[in-house]
Design goal:
Layout (H helix, E strand, L loop, with lengths): L1 E5 L2 E5 L17 H34 L14 H12 L3 H12 L24 H6 L5 H15 L7 H19 L5 H24 L24 E8 L6 H14 L3 E6 L12 H13 L5 E4 L9 H10 L6 E8 L14 H10 L9 E8 L13 E5 L8 H5 L8 H10 L12
Parallel strand pairs: 3-4, 3-6, 4-5, 6-7, 7-8
Antiparallel strand pairs: 1-2
């Protein structure tokens, strides 16, 4: 073997015949030498590329996220197939990959071999965001809610075994049951309910700590209730007339906020009776028991009144019927209604909430003008721009952070419905809720 230098590169040249040592120094490659060199390089080039494949693929993985190629036995790799599949990882141009394939195709006596499997791009790295995890079916909604509950416990601490902590526990049980039983539970909605409930309960706890509210205060809410001895302390209540067909989380969170914002001892829900003018309304025999089950979740801050059963009287009348049941007890009553009623007349030209309440307060309806104070809390929905003249004290309560109505529930958005209502509806075949699956 002797060394020849071409273009400042020393290259070993293999010559036929016996090995000899050329002492004449470097010389120009001859035609036969170049032919031998080129033939050798054609044979070596594919194997050099395969040797470089592993480190280059590792570099490609670091730079591009493409996973490392699977390890295969040598017998399973053919040069053309391997180089073609390795081209992306090696950053080879198509022409170079084709060239390498054509060279290896000229190798003598090569049997056809199986092609290497195609490289599957790596999946996007998993993130800690629960939505992405749920999309990959790797994150259970119940676990997601439980993780949120732990965060809320740290942010909105409540005394152990307190009334507020017990209500929070029952609310969370409703949310977890919804995640388990609803056909298509809306995760973000359930999380919003949990957050809003905790915010409201913290405000209620502050009221309890200051002694400004007493949820144990008793008020007669129907003619069948026993007489209640009067107390020197004025009882403060919110009166919230609703159809509850069915209850939805908007009703409940607004009322929970009212306890903390208005400083009432409790909110009394007056569920509407049957109304022949509304033939599609779910009958009292289903609506009221279902409503009571929902309100029990929030006891003692919520109470149910059946005073509207058997009547078609409006809420502006029923609040005075409740006051009349407590003639000797001082009561401060907040009438709660949506701000779409913050106007003098309704769409039909009839007096709306404020004029009706003022008229009824002046009428002899069994209430005591000296013992009973009447105020109005409008729930923000439309945010009216103009003030309505009135002699009554008026406050505005913020609505919850999502659209909510009983109509949406009836149209199939069942996540808006507490699980207590859902369970009742499932048993009675209401609101399109499918029956419970039969256990095998």
């Amino acid at each position: 073997m002797r060394q020849e230098k071409t273009r400042d590169v020393t290259i070993p040249i293999i010559t036929p015949g016996p090995w000899t040592c050329d002492t004449q120094g470097p010389r120009t490659l001859g035609k036969r030498d170049r032919a031998w060199f080129n033939r050798g390089m054609r044979h070596l080039k594919p194997f050099l590329l395969l040797i470089l494949a592993v480190p280059l693929s590792a570099v490609a993985q670091i730079r591009t996220g493409v996973p490392e190629l699977p390890k295969l036995p040598g017998s399973a790799i053919s040069a053309p197939a391997a180089l073609t599949s390795l081209a992306p990882a090696l950053s080879l141009t198509p022409s170079l990959a084709a060239s390498a394939g054509s060279l290896s195709a000229k190798l003598p006596d090569e049997a056809p071999l199986a092609a290497a499997p195609a490289v599957t791009p790596a999946a996007a790295p998993a993130t800690a965001h629960p939505v992405a995890a749920a999309a990959n079916d790797e994150y259970d909604l119940s676990e997601r809610l439980s993780a949120l509950f732990r965060n809320l416990d740290a942010k909105y601490a409540l005394p152990a075994d307190s009334l507020t902590a017990k209500v929070r526990s029952r609310v969370r049980s409703q949310l977890l049951a919804a995640a388990r039983d609803y056909a298509a539970p809306e995760a973000e909605l359930l999380e919003t309910v949990a957050r809003e409930a905790d915010k409201a309960l913290v405000k209620i706890q502050a009221r309890l700590d200051s002694g400004s509210i007493d949820p144990s205060a008793k008020v007669r809410l129907s003619a069948s209730d026993p007489e209640i001895p009067s107390t020197a302390r004025h009882t403060r209540i919110g009166v919230y007339p609703v159809a509850a067909d069915p209850f939805q989380w908007g009703h409940l969170l607004v009322a929970l906020n009212a306890v903390g914002e208005l400083g009432v001892d409790k909110v009394v829900f007056v569920l509407a009776g049957d109304d022949p003018r509304k033939p599609t309304m779910t009958p009292v025999e289903h609506r009221h028991p279902m409503g009571q089950e929902v309100l029990d979740v929030f006891a003692p801050f919520f109470e149910y009144s059946p005073i509207a059963v058997g009547t078609t009287l409006d809420g502006e009348t029923n609040i005075f019927r409740i006051l009349a049941l407590n003639p000797q007890q001082g009561i401060e009553a907040w009438y709660m209604v949506g701000d779409d009623h913050y106007r003098l007349v309704d769409k039909k030209g009839n007096p709306d909430t404020l004029p009706k309440l003022e008229r009824n307060y002046r009428e002899p309806m069994g209430h005591s003008p000296t013992l009973h104070a009447l105020k109005v809390a409008f729930i923000r929905r439309e945010s009216p721009a103009e003030a309505v003249p009135t002699d009554l004290e008026v406050r505005f309560l913020n609505h919850v952070g999502f659209e909510a109505s009983s109509t949406q529930v009836r149209n199939g958005q069942h996540t808006l419905m507490p699980h207590a209502a859902f369970s009742h509806a499932r048993n009675k075949g209401l609101y399109g809720v499918p029956p419970a699956p039969v256990k095998e």
